[in-house]
Amino acid sequence: MVAGLSIKNALKWKWMLVRIDFPLPGDTITGQFQAEEYSEEVSTVWATVPIPKRSAPHLQWVRGEQETASFRATLWAETLVDNVQSTIDKLKTARKRDDALGRPPQYYFIWGGMVYLCVVLSIGGVRYNDLWADGRVRGVTFDITLQKVEDTLPIAPTDPSAPSPSTRYRPALQGDTYEALALREYNDPNLGVFVRQDNLIAFPGPGDVVPMLPKSSFLRRARAPRSYALGTDEPAATAKQALFDDYSAPVTVPFVRVLPMVFFAPDYMAPSFALFVENSELREDVTGDVISVMFEHSANMANLLTVVINNDNHKYTDNVVWSPGNEVELHLGYGTQVEFVGRGEIIRHLPNFPADGAPQLQIKAYDRSHRMMQQELKVSGGGSKRPKKSKPESGPRWEGQLEFVIQMLAEKYGMGIDVDPELAQEEVKFVQGKGTSDYKVLRSLANIYGADFRVEYEPTGLSFLPGEWVVRFLKPGKAAQDQVYDFVYADGDNSTILSVDLEFGMPQTPSELQVYVFDRATKDWVPVTEEETEEDPPQEFNPATFVPGVPNDAPEIESMTKFRLGVGGHGVEVLTRKFKDPAQAAKYLKTWFQARKDHFVIARARLPGVTSLRSGQTHGFSGLGNRYTGDYFFSTVRHKWDANTGYTVEVVANKVLS
User: Fold this and answer.
1) Looking at the domain assignment, is residue 655 inside a domain?
2) Residue 633: is it exposed, middle or buried by C-beta count within 10 angstroms (0-12/13-18/19+)?
3) Cα dihedral sign for 171, 175, 181, 183?
4) Do 216 and 136 sit in the same domain of this protein?
5) pLDDT-derived band of residue 390, with 50, 70 and 90 as boundaries?
6) Residue 528 forms part of a structural domain
7) How many beta carbons lie within 10 A of that of residue 430, not counting itself?
8) 174 in a domain, yes or no?
9) How far apart are CA 343 and CA 326, in angstroms?
10) Do 66 and 142 have their domain in common?
11) What's the pLDDT score for residue 259?
């Protein structure tokens, strides 16, 4: 017996660790005696801001730190039946990654009136004090350190009725089956078998909250069909009740109804990823060598997927898995719930041989729009002078409805199309300059018609059925967006913005303005390009300068009254009025843009990993002051997983002008 501990108190105040995670919820590690020398570490982080000629720096509070608790524990085998070694082994395992979770498990620590959620941080100072005659351990003393778990990230859509980023919770209605729920959620009743497997009750009752996992989570799961009786007659009801009793025997129904909300929520503590090459998932011995992955979803250029992998002993240098031309697909998420983020065709390898550490191989893959850009890869000019502009040679002539032109261009590269019905019937007529890439043609059409143009891979959600590359040509604001988030900065435990840099005003930033004038007589858009550079002198904006009051003998073009301004890949309809000629319109729009540059705010922010974020979406930023708080249009979204920092999202966003 340990000195200083009475048997009565030792048994009364035994400490316990109770696991809360599947697949072993309720599994308990129990100490025999009190937690000795129990201590807590509670700290916070302050930043010191040095100010010249002050006697001491100014202090600013930055953040709190995780609380830890440590104590010494003793295990002692009173009889030969007691197994002390199994308990200490279970404690050592508690700090290791659980394959089913993608992280170590969480426990409730209970000691007297002290109860809190935690993880096992370390087991140290293990001292074996005595052995049985057969060599088994009889007594052991050790130090254990726990890290308290605070609330997880408060990431939720601003609309409570909108689906959450991964698992979605749906209330069952009267008469619902899992097949009926799957039909409403996934438009496929056959997926109901998977929903049934994820729930411990056979038939959902009215008001039961049923977790509906992302469709992509069913990709690699084996389907195990289970029959159930249909109909409402007595035999069917009896069969249903028997099946219900069979499924529900291990647990009570009230516990089951609470269970999904506790154990099926997104596990932000366990960021994870999966890689597929040519529709086959890579084995863990390959993904275990991955140092980082990144998928950049951009509104203005080809989407980029980057994989950095440990290339020790050059084992991936000539590996056929990473051969150029193969298509690689990235899924990101938390725990075992990963969702499709993006796909690209491997274009190049970038090996790195550092002075310290193992060699690395960087693999870059682009979406299929990169094939449409190949005609742009040509060399012109030379030396320090800009090559003179010359009239482009004639290429293909396009005439017809916009949807037809987009379809013909997409089919050249094996892609489908998704064209906004409001734009599909627009009549177009133009000549594609010789050497002008098909990508540039589509980008110009998007600017002219104010459309959001992008190339994306659309998975089917079934591992055995490949998806399709699609050219999307949609009105702004129609990008795939089921959720709207309000990301918050510096608001205590509600904060969801990790960092943000804001750029207010762009008076010295070079930009190219693309002006299109619509000629109603010919139903053509006449492009006029004015380039603004840093050398251009500032111009004062004065609308009166360009009123239609021109001399009577001036050839005013009355049919040209609609104007569009293309800036950074986005088309904006600026105004409707008359001008003397297109050059005058271009000058007006140039000064219009320059006068309003201070209204354009660019945010570069780091956010927690949310798989549904894409470029073309609009979300809210708050906590940035009145000037910068508001809705932001995401023009670039980078999903990044790193072995050291986990899963985060970097965005470049433009503040939406009111």
Assistant:
1) no
2) buried
3) negative
4) no
5) low
6) yes
7) 17
8) yes
9) 11
10) yes
11) 24
Predicted confidence (pLDDT) per residue in 134-177, tens digit:
888 899 999 999 999 875 566 655 544 443 444 566 667 777 88
CB distance 654 to 600 below 8 Å: yes
pLDDT at 366 over 50: yes
Number of domains in the chain: 3
**Residue bearing tokens 């966003």:** 653
Contact present, 419 and 473 (Cβ < 8 Å): yes
DSSP 6: -
Q: Report the amino acid identity of residue 229.
A: A
Strand 28-30 relative to strand 36-41, pairing: unpaired
Question: Between these two residues, 391 and 466, which has the higher pLDDT value?
Answer: 466
More confident residue, 312 or 523: 312
Q: Which is it for strands 337-352 and 327-334: parallel, antiparallel or unpaired?
A: antiparallel
What is 345-404 written as a DSSP string? EEEEEEEE--SSS--EEEEEEE-THHHHTGGG-----BTTBPPPP-PPPP--EEEEEHHH
CA atoms of 146 and 148, how far apart (whole Å): 6
pLDDT at 386 over 60: no
Task: Check: CB of residue 579 under 8 Å from CB of residue 557.
Answer: yes
Report helix, strand and coil shares of the chain as percent, to nearest 5.
20, 35, 45
pLDDT in tens, 485-496: 888 888 877 788
Q: Please, which residues have CB within 8 angstroms of residue 535's CB and are 6 or more apart in sequence? A: none
pLDDT at 477: 62
Task: Name the token pair of 258.
Answer: 């609470």
- Of 242, 263, 284, which closes a domain? 263
**DSSP assignment letter at 485:** B
User: What is the DSSP code string of 259-289?
Assistant: HHHHHSS--TT-EEEEEEETTEEPPHHHHTT
User: Backbone phi, then psi, for 319, in 5-degree steps?
Assistant: -70, 130
For residue 79, what is the DSSP state?
S
Confidence of residue 36 (pLDDT cuts 50, 70, 90): very high
Structure tokens at 208: 């039961």
**Residue 127: domain span:** 7-148
Please check whether residue 351 lies inside any domain of the structure. Answer: no
Given pLDDT bands bounded at 50, 70 and 90, which one contains residue 63? confident
Q: How far apart are CA 196 and CA 201, in angstroms?
A: 8
User: Quick check: 256 and 270 in contact, CB under 8 A?
Assistant: no
